């Protein structure tokens, strides 16, 4: 799963759950309560915690999606579609992620308040149109590409 932090920097991690039946399966402070649910295990007195979340897992169009109660959604990187270099990409407030098997350079008309972020196969940031102030991105082979914002990215 890819975990967005503040801004556009996105480090990655994998969810690993113990198979030891004598231990309750935990991940990032939540206890799995069923095959598709997990609840926050920590109790923070008085004000709660911004890091306390519950999890619901659904299957949407054949893809498993992890919904966190804080409003973040996750899918496995294995389920990301391949980027069609000739397609227009429309986003509606939630980033759309793609994989790119081959290296290429793409130029898009980028809507206002939108960006394209590119990460290599190890999830290291490679390009970000918002940071670089450009409408052209170089995509390495086996990269992750995120179209971020609310609008339509039109390829040149």
How much β-strand is present in the residues? 35-45%
Enumerate the strands of the largest sheet in spatial order, edge to edge or round the barrel.
1-2-3-4-5-6
- How many angstroms does the end-to-end distance come to? 31 Å
Helix content: under 10%
Shape: elongated
Number of helices: 1
Radius of gyration: 18 Å
Mean pLDDT: 80
Major beta sheet summary: 6 strands, antiparallel
Summarize the helix and strand pattern as letters. Answer: EEEEEEEEEEEHEEE
Q: Could you list the spans in which at least 5 consecutive residues all have pLDDT below 50?
A: 1-14
Q: What structural class should be given to the helix and strand makeup?
A: mainly beta
Number of strands: 14
What does the model show?
The chain is mostly beta strands and 156 residues long. It contains 1 helix and 14 strands; from the N terminus they run E-E-E-E-E-E-E-E-E-E-E-H-E-E-E. The strands form 3 sheets. Strands 1-2-3-4-5-6 form a 6-stranded antiparallel β-sheet, with no helix packed on it. Strand 10 (115-119) and strand 11 (125-128) form a beta hairpin.
Task: Outline the fold blueprint.
Blueprint: E1 26-27, E2 30-34, E3 37-40, E4 55-60, E5 63-68, E6 73-75, E7 89-92, E8 96-100, E9 104-109, E10 115-119, E11 125-128, H1 129-132, E12 136-139, E13 143-148, E14 150-155
Antiparallel strand pairs: 1-2, 2-3, 3-4, 4-5, 5-6, 7-14, 8-13, 9-12, 9-14, 10-11, 10-13
